[in-house]
TrEMBL record:
One of its GO terms (molecular function) is transaminase activity. Catalyzes the formation of L-homocysteine from O-succinyl-L-homoserine (OSHS) and hydrogen sulfide. The keyword Ribonucleoprotein does not apply. This is O-succinylhomoserine sulfhydrylase. PANTHER family: CYSTATHIONINE GAMMA-LYASE, TRANS-SULFURATION ENZYME FAMILY MEMBER. It holds the Pfam family Cys_Met_Meta_PP. The modification N6-(pyridoxal phosphate)lysine is found at residue 217.
Amino acid sequence: MKKTTGTDRSITSQWRPATRAVRAGTWRSEQGETSEALFLTSGYTYDDAATVAARFAGEAEGMTYSRLQNPTVAMLEERIAAMEGSEACRVQATGMAAMTTALLCQLKTGDHVVAGRAAFGSCRWLVDTLLPKFGIEATVIDARDNAAWEAAIRPNTKVFFFETPANPTMDVVDLEFVCGLAKSRGITSVVDNAFATAALQRPLEFGADVVAYSATKLMDGQGRVLAGAVCGTRQWIDEVLLPFQRNTGPNCSPFNAWVVLKGLETLSLRAHAQSRNALEVGRFVESRVPQMLHPGLPSHPQHNLAMKQMDAVGPIFSFVLDGGRAQAHAVLDALQLIDISNNIGDSKSLLCHPASTTHANMGEEARLEMGIEQGMLRINVGLEDPADLIEDLDQAFTKAGL
Ligand SMILES: *Cc1c(COP(=O)(O)O)cnc(C)c1O
């Protein structure tokens, strides 16, 4: 394998973001292929016994087993790290494998975590159900409230864990304040950046320690594969995350890594085009519904904060109808173009009713505490012509009595 200039961080760090997205992390085999090669191999062979012994001893570079290293996976890791501006990155099989790894690799019995209450359903399950099983306590707060973060800190607080914008209420967390507070108290901040990606928001620039991803969403962007990623300093990745990942095996398949790698080449174009479409569709939806949750619109109470820390607010927003679940379901059932789907980040527009899908199993009380009403719908705006999306929503709203 020949490493190209894309693997030299002293060079890639000089490149502008669009160039990093296309070229960072590229290795080439002796064939000189243009597109990144897909290495579907679990193991490796060696010219002689001394070579393999040196690799296992950590004295020579080279692959030994795909749970530890794989060239296609390594290319994706280098590209994500270059886009994120992080020293290192490791990719995992899914976003939830990434979140679980990012938390469990650094926590132990007796530790305490503070987490944002608006979150992806399974992220809340980690905090509410999994961590307590291992004697790790968690305090769940309204992450928009800076004072609540400070008030929740205990002597044994090790991690702050949150997403911004948060799913599906679109709560925005003040990255600079919360990550700065964590740093000043020796707490590790872990930011789930799936809704934005590095194309729209780079939490490390605001002081975050660890950035974790579902790469299933905008990074793949075309609804094909599941994948996840965790980014941090070289030392944290090597000393804290890697021992956990290498021995527990939440690894990403080389095939899925390759798909995401190719998706990253167009991430910035897609993220910005979908953000523009989501603003246009959002302005229409706002004219028709009683409650709008779109941080890109001036009506959102956290609009200024969102614009301070994001280049654009992305393809996803939510809105609430007065007619509860019946009216929300009526809108879904009247759609002719937009699909009923709980996925996000896709280039296809998708509409979802969180209370009966992604957040169905948490119970009405916890849902309401999180701000998820029965009348809430969450949309992922894709790459279709926004005029067609507006026409589809217009007819669906009318049929649903709006
Ligand atoms: C989808 C998602 C996850 C989980 O990712 P998977 O790839 O589905 O495992 C975690 N956090 C957020 C914010 C997500 O949107």
